[in-house]
Structures are given as structure tokens and as C-alpha cells.
Specification:
By secondary structure, the chain is an alpha/beta fold. It contains 15 helices and ten strands.
Length: 380
């Protein structure tokens, strides 16, 4: 008998049977793909807003093993892991160190920023802060992702200040880095990054930097949720520099590409749809575009819902989906962020995940949704 659950309002929803997808841990051949992974909170930790992060390390690492088992690289200590929303640099260091110890299972890149130097007052201080984190990330064997800096956005007065910092930082990297351009939908404090609130001007400054340092840049990770901008930017990148899409609204078309150009992937949504993403990319490796689209296109309603405004709360949906999928024991988050999305929002995420065939154990998913509804006092 199929699993079923009574939803708010009394409607009985019958879940679809599990979808069995081909999976293997080997890397993909046609694209590079990272999933930005979340962290699992210690349910007995004091994870109140503003408190130091208490992490359930084993469950957190188990989730990374799940991603590696599907052939995806792990992008560690990024905004998906609540970087800047509960996870401080001390916790990030431990997270990166622990993930790197298991990175023989697959590819690992990790965020390097300036968030341990909140009171920095000039670009020289920003540079020192960046250099410290890049050095640590590289010391673990992980590839460095140079994240956008709230501190640099605060102290910079022009595009020249951004160039001053990055011109000095990039030559210090032991191997090519991934440059991260995070849009204001994900972090409003990054308004005007690269020296201008005008996207065209900011893009020119960004491209000038990348062309100047093409030998130190593996790729750029762009999270502006603007597919047209991404295509135009991708066309202007130097040969050999990848564009890692961060567009959780348009990833199937951007990764597929057109006219001989395509994006690679560094996506938070891939953490929520790992089995489908893996099956799609395996199909793409084999030139099977139809299967690629059949796997990814049904996940778009879920992605657009989870990343709906206010987009920076998408982490709540990622953790919720991991819980109802049996990939973590509970639904609590550091900083109390499990309360950042409403019950109706989470119910709709559940329905989208079921429609896309992303719930590996429908009985468990139905049971856990019922627990959430009961705890919220929802009459059914």
C-alpha cells in the first residue's frame, strides 16, 4: 500500500513510489559539479540565535558522504552551511578540517572569506583576513573558494579597492581558486560588490580581474539568479576558466548549455536533489540529453520554491528535505533557523519533492511530515 499523509485542511496525499536511480561515486566527465552542503545541528546544543554553533559532526559528515557517493563534489563552509548566519569561522575551521580528512571519497572545495575579522577598517585588513583563511583552506588540501566579503563591501570605496585586494590575494594561492560573486538575494550586505551597484559596471570590473589573473582562477561561481547575465558573462571568460553556475532557478538549461558553451555547477540545490542531479549528469556524460532533462526539469518547481524570497532562508528548506529523506536524525538548525520558513512553505516543499521522485522512503517522509504538523498544532 502506498504511503499517505493527511495535509492541513484534511486532504489525504498519497506519495508516489520511490524512484530508483543509477548512482556511482566516480567523477563526471562532461561537467564539474559541486553541491554546497548544509550542516546538521546538535539537537542538545545551545543553538539559539547569536550563540556559537553546536554541530552534530557525525550527521554532518554523513551527509557529505551521501553527496560524494553520488559523484558530486562538496563545496564546504559556504552560505548553504549558514556561513554568516550562525556558523562562525571557528566552526568553519573545524568543519573544513573534518571534511578534508574524508575527502579521499571525492572532490572538496571550501570557502575562504574574511568573517573572522568583522571589525576590519581598511582594505589592508581585509587582505590579511582573506590570506589567513586561504592559507588554512589550502593547508587541509581543499581547493579554495574565495568568497565575497561583507567586510570588503563595507570598507571599499570604489572598484580600485576591490582590485587592490584581489590583485594581491590571488598570487598567494597555491593552486587556482574559485571566485565567488554572491548576489544580494542571498546576502543584502553585498550590494555594490566589485565597486558598483550597476551590474554591467560590476561585471566589467570582475572580468578585468579574471582576465588579469586567469592563471590563478579555476573558475567563477556566480549567484545572481540571472540566466541571461550568466550566459553573457560566460562568453567573455578567458579560455580555461570555468563558470560554476549558482543559479538555482535555471540550472538545467545553463549546465546543458548551447552553442558550444555550458556552465559547470556549484549549487545549494544539488544538496537537495543529489540522486536526480547525479543521474542527469551521468546521462549527459553519455550524450543522453533527453534523460538529463527528464531528471532535472521536474526538480525545478522544488528549487524555485526552496529558493523563493527571502532567498537567504533557503537553508531551512535544504535541512528540512534532508530530514524527511532520512539523511539526518532531526530538524533543528544552528541559530534556530529551522523556524525561518512557515509550515505551509515546508508542506509545499514536501509535495514538490514527492512529485520529483526525490523521497527515498515515502513512509518515513510521510511520518516525519506528520510529526512536524503535530508539533505545530495543525488540525487535520
Amino acid at each position: 500500500m502506498s504511503a499517505r499523509v493527511t495535509l492541513p485542511g484534511g486532504r489525504v496525499h498519497v506519495l508516489r513510489d520511490p524512484v530508483r536511480r543509477r548512482t556511482s561515486p566516480g567523477p563526471f566527465t562532461s561537467r564539474v559539479a559541486f553541491a554546497a552542503a548544509h550542516v546538521v545541528a546538535d539537537p542538545l546544543g545551545d543553538n539559539a540565535p547569536g550563540a556559537p554553533a553546536a554541530v552534530d559532526w557525525e550527521s554532518t559528515l554523513a551527509f557529505r558522504r551521501h553527496l560524494w557517493a553520488h559523484g558530486l563534489g562538496v563545496a564546504e563552509a559556504m552560505d548553504t552551511a549558514q556561513r554568516g548566519m550562525g556558523l562562525d569561522w571557528a566552526a568553519c575551521r573545524e568543519l573544513i578540517r573534518r571534511s578534508a580528512a574524508e575527502a579521499g571519497r571525492g572532490r572538496l572545495a571550501a570557502g575562504a572569506g574574511t568573517d573572522h575579522a568583522e571589525r576590519v577598517s581598511d582594505v589592508d585588513g581585509v587582505l590579511r583576513a582573506y590570506a589567513e583563511q586561504v592559507e588554512f583552506v589550502q593547508s587541509t588540501g581543499a581547493q579554495a573558494i574565495v568568497m565575497a566579503s561583507r567586510q570588503l563591501a563595507r570598507v571599499a570605496t570604489s572598484a580600485r579597492d576591490y582590485r587592490w585586494v584581489y590583485d594581491r590575494l590571488l598570487p598567494q594561492a597555491d593552486e587556482p581558486v574559485i571566485l565567488h560573486w554572491l548576489g544580494t538575494a542571498f546576502d543584502p550586505s553585498l550590494a555594490g560588490y566589485w565597486g558598483s551597484a550597476d551590474v554591467a559596471e560590476a561585471t566589467k570590473a570582475f572580468l578585468d580581474l579574471v582576465h588579469e589573473h586567469r592563471d590563478r582562477v579555476d573558475g567563477v561561481k556566480v549567484s545572481l539568479l540571472d540566466a541571461g547575465h550568466e550566459r553573457a558573462l560566460r562568453a567573455e571568460l578567458p579560455d580555461g576558466v570555468r563558470l560554476y553556475t549558482g543559479d538555482d532557478y535555471h540550472y538545467p538549461e545553463l549546465v546543458l548549455g548551447e552553442g558550444g558553451r555550458s556552465s559547470d555547477a556549484l549549487l545549494g540545490v544539488f544538496a537537495a536533489i543529489a540522486p536526480a542531479a547525479s543521474a542527469a549528469l551521468r546521462a549527459l556524460d553519455e550524450g543522453d540529453t533527453a534523460t538529463y532533462l527528464a531528471e532535472l526539469e521536474p526538480t525545478l518547481p522544488l528549487a524555485r520554491h526552496v529558493f523563493a524570497p527571502p532567498t537567504f532562508y533557503y537553508k531551512t528548506g535544504i535541512a528540512f528535505l534532508a530530514w524527511i529523506s532520512g539523511l539526518q536524525p532531526g530538524f533543528t538548525m544552528i541559530g534556530g533557523l529551522h523556524g525561518a520558513r512557515s509550515v505551509p512553505h515546508l508542506v509545499q516543499a514536501f509535495l514538490h519533492a514527492d512529485a520529483a521522485g526525490l523521497l527515498p522512503d515515502p513512509e518515513l517522509a510521510a511520518h516525519r511530515l506528520s510529526l512536524l504538523l503535530d508539533a505545530a498544532g495543525v488540525a487535520r
